[in-house]
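Usage example:
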Amino acid sequence: MIAQIGLSILLAGVLVYAWTEYRRAPVISILSMLVATAGLYFVWLPSHATRLATLVGIGRGVDLIIYVWVVISLILLLNLHLKLRSQSELITILMREIALANARAAEPSK
Amino acid sequence: MISKQHKNPNTGSIWIVVAAFNEATVLGPIVSDLMRRTYRVVVVDDGSSDATGQIALSAGATVITHPVNLGQGAALQTGIKFALQQGAAFVVTFDADGQHRPSDIARLIEALTDYDAAYALGSRFLGSSRGMPLGRRLLLQVAIWLTRVMTGLRLTDTHNGLRAMTRDGASRIFLRQNRMAHASELLEQIAASGLRHVEVPVTIDYTRYSLAKGQRLSDSLAILFDLSAQKLHR
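Running the assembly step on the lines above writes:
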């Protein structure tokens, strides 16, 4: 029971985070919301997880949930990567302005 | 060509954008050649560790220096922005490694006016290329096919650094891909602009120097990754 509550809080956190990311990266946001919702469902109905796990050829429901967590982590990792890309785009724009402000010409350029 | 530029005041100035990263050994004569043809030349020194900027400056170009190396896409965008700020009527991108011929520029500009196009793209497959290895040819064919699928543009050469744009065309380009994926990104933006483009035969001279600086298969995988990653965020 304690584990279920703890996991639920974490998954709810993921849900909220995914929702706040929607405007910036809609695809990532929707994916993580779907996965987190599935996670919440299985945390409270592990028997369904076991049934589904057997259906897709995984031994136990617990294993399935671990896999779901792995998937969430990977998606968040991708999201982090995308954030870094946005950051470097901003740095590029900043550097471009600095470079343009310091243009040098052998003769007056206009 | 030169007389045309002066005769018609509406054509204004033609700016050549050269993105250069550690090209000190070859850049000088290229810039001099361009200057002799009375083009305005801006060399974007992309954080070179050699004397690229100094050599371009003494050859007569305007030099913009990125504090650190950002990549060819970023450098071209910087140069295009500068040219537009200077009131360029036409913006031409020109590789710094000596594979392009300055004499081809006039034909690109003519094509823009003759066909009322916003973009004139150099094509080595319509023109001639000397010393192109088979591997390079195959790689370029794959890129041409992918471009057709992804942008709907039917081009014969998708990764040619020699292009000319009108002021209107250039102002619709904003390259976010700092590294090599900018060539594909540029084509996507040309397709999205809905403006007319033409392909113009140009000659590429493959030298050992330019081949060493060119793209390899692993680079093209990185380009595909960059392009897909950008689709996922703003």
